Amino acid sequence: MFSGIVAATGRILRVDPLGDGVRLTVNVGALDLEDVRIGDSIANNGVCLTVVAMHGDELQFDVSRESLECTVGLAAPGEVNLEKALRADDRLGGHIVTGHVDGVGEVLKFEAIEESHELVIRAPREIAGYIARKGSITVDGVSLTVNRVDGTDFSINLIPHTIAVTTLKRLQPGARVNLEIDIIARYVERMQAWREAGG
Hints:
The protein is mainly β. It has two domains: 8-84, Elongation Factor Tu (Ef-tu), domain 3, CATH 2.40.30; 103-192, Beta Barrel (Elongation Factor Tu (Ef-tu), domain 3), CATH 2.40.30.20. 15% of the residues lie in helices and 44% in strands. It contains four helices and twelve strands. The strands form two sheets. It has a six-stranded antiparallel β-barrel with strand order 1-2-5-4-3-6. The chain has a six-stranded antiparallel barrel with strand order 7-8-11-10-9-12. It is globular and about 50 Å long. It starts with 7 loop residues before the first strand and ends with a helix.
């Protein structure tokens, strides 16, 4: 479980074939590894991955073919947002994030507006109904608040701090991003469907 508050940005250094998937070697940058052990979960661009090896400030993660097919940003070297899994006594500064990507969105607009940036994303139709104005969504592992929704498109305001400490600063129209909807929306839908079915 994560909160969507990025702890550091790292860089995928190598992507090595491994069975039907790959093994990533990630330089974790400023991420504190003092309490990290093999077997721990770390979100990479919003994808929950398990540490399989450690070498100094480099961690290795195995990624299955299925994960590669339903996410972006893990198949080639490049920057990634990193977050360690929450402990029971941690603050929940963002929102409840599972690290299981629900779909891949497309950036339609990324534009500076005074000190902030407006980010407009088109979500896959199958998850668009879970995105609500003033609700939470995770974009490449970053917990954000939705400002506006129009069909499958939604808008987010990015403050300077978010731009400074995440990889979102590098987004451009046409870029693809990992999206995870608020898990509470899924439970609400399930409860409503259960009641309507006479459960």
